[in-house]
Amino acid sequence: MLQLQHTFARIVVIIKRCVKMEDCLPELERIPLFENIGPDELPRMLRCLGAVRKRFRRSEFISLGGDRLDQAGVLLRGAVHMIQEDARGNKVLLDSVGEGDLFGENFICAEESGSSVSFQAASDCVVLFLPLRRVLRTCSNACGFHHRLIENLAKIMARKNRLLLERLEILSRRTIRERLLTWFSQQTRKGGGRFTCPMGRIETAEYLCVDRSALTRELARMKREGLVDFSGNTYWVPRCPCEGAARKPE
């Protein structure tokens, strides 16, 4: 009887987490994976692929290292961290997944027997799950959106490879200051001298693979020297250190 009650409780939780697909169509139209797929095609595509939308609470694990991934996730709302944990329980933040981003696709495309990382909700979030193998193998109906999905997937994976090269560039620097300057340079090339980091100080330290306390001290020194200014997770950086102190926009 207790086992039956436990099973029923799990079914209730799953039902509550699943959200009607029709409610998320406006969000899907703005996601890179569904670029050039018309709003009239989206409902048919989601039915064809068997997509499922679920909610997760903050700190809840979406998948664990070692799990075999059959579905890739598209983050509709919130934030997700990709983390790796060693045998001693030490965690390393490998990446931060933002809204509209795809995650888990590498392990599916490579046909890995198990994922080497875990995905954890960094905040309350909503995830759309897609059986990616059905995307890669066109269906008998010869749906036109399959080809566009594959093209979009290739673009996304190419962009992720570029981001991986950026991360390797950071980690190739020996000191904390050199890693920070490289990271600042990458961010300002994308959006000017001001940017907001989606990661907190602990996550930023993990991303840079440095000690959090040492990172905080180095940031304070760089701020005194005019190399950077910051408030919370928002940073202001001059075009180059030789231009003098960073200035917040008026």
Q: Could you characterize the architecture of this molecule?
A:
The strands form 3 sheets. A 4-stranded antiparallel sheet has the order 1-8-3-6. Strands 2-7-4-5 form a 4-stranded antiparallel sheet. With 250 residues, the chain is α+β, with helices and mostly antiparallel strands. A hairpin with a 2-residue loop joins strand 10 (229-231) and strand 11. The protein is globular and about 65 Å long. It has 2 domains: 2-167, Jelly Rolls; 175-243, Orthogonal Bundle (Arc Repressor Mutant, subunit A), CATH 1.10.10.10. It has helices at 2-17, 25-28, 42-49, 105-109, 132-136, 144-171, 176-191, 201-208, 212-224; strands spanning 52-56, 61-63, 72-77, 80-85, 91-97, 102-103, 118-121, 125-130, 194-196, 229-231, 234-236. Helices cover 41% and strands 19% of the residues. Residues 1-19 and 241-247 have low confidence and may be disordered. The termini are far apart.
Describe the structure using short key phrases.
250 residues; alpha+beta; Jelly Rolls; Arc Repressor Mutant, subunit A; 19% strand
User: What structural category characterises the helix and strand content?
Assistant: alpha+beta
Average pLDDT, to the nearest integer? 81
- What is the number of E strands? 11
Number of domains: 2
What radius of gyration results from the CA coordinates? Answer: 21 Å
**Which H/E pattern describes the elements?**
HHHEEEEEEHEEHHHEHHEE
- CATH-derived topology of the largest domain: Jelly Rolls
- Total helix count? 9
Distance between the termini: 66 Å
